[in-house]
């Protein structure tokens, strides 16, 4: 589904992506961890087209994304959810998701409405449909971010630190939602909270100074020398 090869990007002397390679299939979740400034969000900027890569290839379902504008990549199946929920606070939950189905996915009328209702139900927000988005508790605002992304019917869902600010039981609830969603698409989940990834990620990719240090199943990644060094400052 997704094939990233030799993906490279520098800002001046700062290397945010250093010939990164990985691949991902539908039904899989790749967790991404790494210290602040490692290049995690930059990886998403390169995949979505917010930033322009210096070199490499990002193919989704065989189609090259690099060189295409962000809106076209969205139509090709890339959706992203942010740590800080980006909803329209003075619209209802339903209206927010309808906007995503309309402008993100290009649907209209009954088709857009059906897509929105389906996304709300997959994300456990049916009962909140008529509530104003700006008044939702944090976990539901996170669910709304997911519903907006899902409403575009993505092949690839990019989650950037969406668990930030949640309590531990809320993180578990969000992880359960991601586990449910990933059965139908490929997910890349950047998270500072490794426990959140543990239950959902099939593999974890460790980034450091834009370089892929390691890609391994969660247990192996967490126990690795590389992760202990960068997170706990143990001597190399
Ligand atoms: N548009 C930009 N221009 C210059 N430097 C940038 C830009 N975007 C990110 N950076 C720098 O690239 C590095 C990686 O940033 P980022 O990908 O946001 O890290 P992470 O998400 O892993 O914390 C940081 O040093 C950041 O300051
Ligand atoms: Mg980031």
Care to describe what's here?
The protein is α/β, with parallel strands linked by helices. The chain folds into two domains: 2-77 and 154-232, 3-Layer(aba) Sandwich (Rossmann fold), CATH 3.40.50.300; 86-143, no CATH class. The protein contains nine helices and ten strands. The chain is globular. It binds adenosine-5'-diphosphate (ADP) and magnesium ion (MG). Magnesium ion is lined by residues 40-41.
Secondary structure elements and their pairing?
Elements: E1 2-11, E2 14-24, E3 29-33, H1 40-48, E4 55-60, E5 63-64, H2 70-76, E6 78-81, H3 93-104, H4 109-122, H5 138-150, E7 156-160, H6 168-181, E8 186-190, H7 194-198, E9 203-208, E10 211-216, H8 218-223, H9 225-232
Parallel strand pairs: 3-8, 3-9, 6-7, 7-8
Antiparallel strand pairs: 1-2, 1-4, 4-5, 9-10
Helix pairs in contact: 3-4, 3-5, 4-5, 5-6
Quick overview:
The protein is of the alpha/beta class and 236 residues long.
Essential attributes:
236 residues; alpha/beta; Rossmann fold; six-stranded mixed sheet; four-stranded antiparallel sheet; 9 helices; 10 strands; globular; binds magnesium ion
Q: How would you describe the oligomerization state of the chains in this entry?
A: single chain
H/E order of the elements? Answer: EEEHEEHEHHHEHEHEEHH
Distance between the termini: 36 Å
Helix content: 25-40%
- Overall strand count: 10
Largest sheet features: 6 strands, mixed
The gross shape turns out to be: globular
| Name of the CATH first level of the largest domain | Alpha Beta
* Count of alpha and pi helical runs: 9
């Amino acid at each position: 589904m997704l094939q990233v090869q030799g993906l490279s990007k520098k800002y001046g002397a700062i290397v945010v992506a250093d010939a990164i390679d990985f691949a991902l299939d539908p039904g899989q979740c790749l967790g991404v961890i790494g210290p602040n400034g490692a290049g995690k969000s930059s990886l998403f900027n390169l995949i979505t087209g917010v930033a322009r890569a210096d070199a490499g290839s990002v193919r989704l379902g065989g189609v090259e994304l690099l060189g295409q504008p962000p809106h076209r990549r969205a139509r090709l199946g890339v959706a992203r959810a942010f740590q800080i929920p980006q909803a329209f606070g003075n619209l209802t939950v339903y209206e927010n998701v309808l906007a995503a189905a309309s402008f993100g996915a290009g649907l209209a009328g009954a088709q857009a409405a059906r897509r929105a209702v389906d996304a709300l139900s997959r994300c456990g927000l049916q009962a909140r449909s008529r509530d104003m988005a700006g008044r939702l508790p944090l976990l539901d605002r996170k669910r709304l971010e997911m519903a907006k992304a899902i409403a575009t019917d993505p092949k690839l869902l990019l989650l950037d630190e969406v668990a930030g600010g949640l309590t531990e039981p809320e993180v578990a609830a969000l992880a359960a939602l991601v586990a449910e969603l990933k059965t139908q698409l490929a997910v890349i989940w950047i998270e500072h909270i490794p426990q959140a990834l543990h239950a959902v990620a099939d593999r974890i990719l460790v980034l450091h100074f834009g370089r892929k240090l390691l890609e391994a199943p969660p247990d192996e990644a967490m126990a690795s020398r590389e992760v202990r060094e960068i997170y706990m400052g143990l001597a190399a």
